[in-house]
Amino acid sequence: MDIKQALDSKISRYNLLQHPFYQAWSAGNLPVDALKCYAREYGAFISTLPKGWETLNDAETAEEETEHIEMWQDFADGLDTEISDAQIPQVKTLLDTADNLFSNSNTALGALYAFEVQQPETAKSKLTGLKEFYQLPDKVEPYFVTHSHNEHEAEKLLDRIGALPADSQEVVVEACEQMSRALWDALTGIHDAQCA
Q: How many CA atoms lie within 13 A of 50 on its CB side?
């Protein structure tokens, strides 16, 4: 099994496209209040991404991610809410996990890969749901438009991971699994708070 297969096998257990929250969103069954909660809570996680790239000494991508936080805030604005501190326990755990994993270059590689490799497909799914089922201002869409064809970040991470020695790659795979689980659990927390 090569490193990409090892990473992807961990992620596949927590494939966000299969999560009930995203499935309800893409089917138009998610209440708007759930979208608002997601914009507020998950925005707190989106705001952590520049730190991961800074740990990797990738100032260009860190700056790009900072601009993407502003796009996320536009998404929240379109829902008449704003990014706030996490209130849902599983989202708080996601933030703690990100903070921990983004503090070391090997674990940052694995954690960022877990998120970035899934983002193009989840962004496409969410964008389709927004367009088909929700009558919301146009400003809710640009974050998802941008990320629906944003494969270069995952590719960049994979190149760096592939250049690491085997023992470091093991650390990366473990971090990837931790982040994949935390992302899944955060969605579960938002889903349970809004849809149960």
A: 14
In 3D space, the residue among 65, 60, 59, 61 whose CA is nearest the CA of residue 47 turns out to be 65
Q: The whole model's pTM is what?
A: 0.97
Q: CA 192 to CA 196: how far, in whole Å?
A: 5
Question: Closest by alpha carbon to 176, among 150, 157, 148?
Answer: 157
75 three-state secondary structure: helix
pLDDT of residue 195: 83
pLDDT of 173 above 80: yes
pLDDT band at 1 (very low <50, low <70, confident <90, very high): confident
* Residues 16, 92: Cα–Cα separation, whole Å: 18
Residue 148, classed as helix, strand or coil, is coil
Q: If you count them, how many residues does the chain have?
A: 196
Tens digits of residue pLDDT in 80-90: 999 999 999 99
| Amino acid at the residue 74 | D
Characterize 142-168 residue by residue with b for buried, 16 or more Cβ atoms within 10 angstroms of its Cβ, and e for exposed: bbbebbbeeeebbebbbebbeebeeee
- Per-position DSSP letters for 76-105, written without gaps between them: HHHTT-------SHHHHHHHHHHHHHTTSH
